[in-house]
Amino acid sequence: MEMLIDFPGGARVDAHFHGMTLKTDQPAPAGANSAPAPFDTFLASIGTCAGIYVLGFCQSRNLSVEGIRIRQGIDYDRMSGMVTKITLDIEVPPSFPEKYYPALVRAADQCKVKKHLEHPPAFDVKTVVVATAKA
């Protein structure tokens, strides 16, 4: 998979992949606050990824997802600003069968974003000079 990242103006940085564009921006005053900040998008990917697995679990058992949501908590180290803990609480309505509570947690634990954080990839960042095409 390859993503193309470009700079459409201001503090915006967009990622293009699979025929889609993920737009990001920075909060004012650095940016126009026209889209989520890249780090916020990253954090949201954790909860939404877990949500895909919870949704799939429920759909495979014909369980209603009405009233189900995931509340994501994020703790930061005040000195470094780094995230120290992420909590995912799967909130279910009283009518949701209790026997599936542990299975919901196991489903959410399958999140690929979470697994990549637990076993991070290597990074290779470099500058590559490309010739511009002449019209």
Structural summary, described in words:
By secondary structure, the chain is of the alpha+beta class. It has a domain at 36-118: K homology (KH) domain (GMP Synthetase, Chain A, domain 3). The chain contains 3 helices and 5 strands, in the order E-E-E-H-E-E-H-H. It has helices at residues 38-60, 101-108, 112-118; strands spanning 4-9, 12-17, 20-24, 69-76, 83-91. A 3-stranded antiparallel β-sheet has the order 1-2-3, with no helix packed on it. It has a two-stranded antiparallel ribbon with strand order 4-5. The longest helix has 23 residues, at 38-60. The protein starts with a strand and ends in a 17-residue tail after the last helix.
From the coordinates shown, what is the CATH architecture of the domain at 36-118?
A: 2-Layer Sandwich
- Overall CATH class of the domain at 36-118: Alpha Beta
Number of helices: 3
Biggest sheet details: 3 strands, antiparallel
Strand order in space, largest sheet: 1-2-3
Order of helices and strands: EEEHEEHH
The CATH superfamily of the domain at 36-118 turns out to be K homology (KH) domain
Provide the β-strand percentage band.
Answer: 25-35%
* CATH fold topology of the domain at 36-118: GMP Synthetase, Chain A, domain 3
What is the SS-derived class? alpha+beta
Helix content: 25-40%
Which regions have little confidence, pLDDT < 50, spanning 5+ residues? Answer: none
User: In whole angstroms, how far apart are the ends?
Assistant: 28 Å
